[in-house]
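Look at one such:
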Amino acid sequence: MEKTGVPEVKAEQTTGFRARLGRIKVRGYYWPVRTIVQLGFFVLFSGIGIMSLVPAFNGTRSWVVLPIVSSVKSQAQVTSTMDAITLFLENGLFPWLPLGIMLVVGAILGRFMCGWICPVGFLQDVITSVKGRVDSVEKRAHLYWIRLKYVLVVLTFLISGSLGLAVYYGWRFLGTAQSSDLTFGNLSSWFGHISALTWLNVVVLVGFVYAAWRIPRFWCRYVCPVGAIMAVTQKNSLLGMHRDPIKCSECKECETACPMQIPILDLDWKKFNDSECILCMACIDACPAGALSPKFP
């Protein structure tokens, strides 16, 4: 047949762009939400911002305790389980309530609060973000130090309260000093009255920053008594992680991004609840195939 002068329009020219547009999936990431949540709780537990905005806020501690680690002299009304444990032990009582809270929360949410709410965890994440990379530890040494932190639980019960109070009283002068007070004589006098225990705490603080710089989440991995206690029920918690074996190419990007150095690819893909997992979702954000996701229950 004779061709007409009307040009032929191919189907892909009219539908190809629309088809590609329809296949585009906007991927969400957990890290921006987690950072905002962590920052909000950090301000809450410090209590400083609240006291500035609400003068009537007196900073009196309430009975509400959460399985986190925070300063014993913070102005927040919500306190940590370690504060409560210290208070119980000081009065010769066994800390049934705070221990029960940690075990129950661990059984339901795992160590979710370690990754999203704990202010000490937030400080470590900030240090790692400034560094710009997540370093790993030799596997044998990593497993050894994990076991060691359970030994430190008993020691932490004994010294947690005294160290926090010593830091507060040692640095109180700088929090109230005027610029006219910062003379050489006053500073020399102040430094001369600092106790040996306070200097020890300064060394511990410097060591904490250095350790967090060298090893991501050093405190959570090898020292934290709250994490050690919650790990007892974390392995069978209702909230866990799922890995899709069809999407997963075993590229190990998830393991590289994990701040707790968890061997994700060696765990059950249906649902894994590693005792050291803090459910920060960094593995989900790092997975290029979207093979990882939270699973509850």
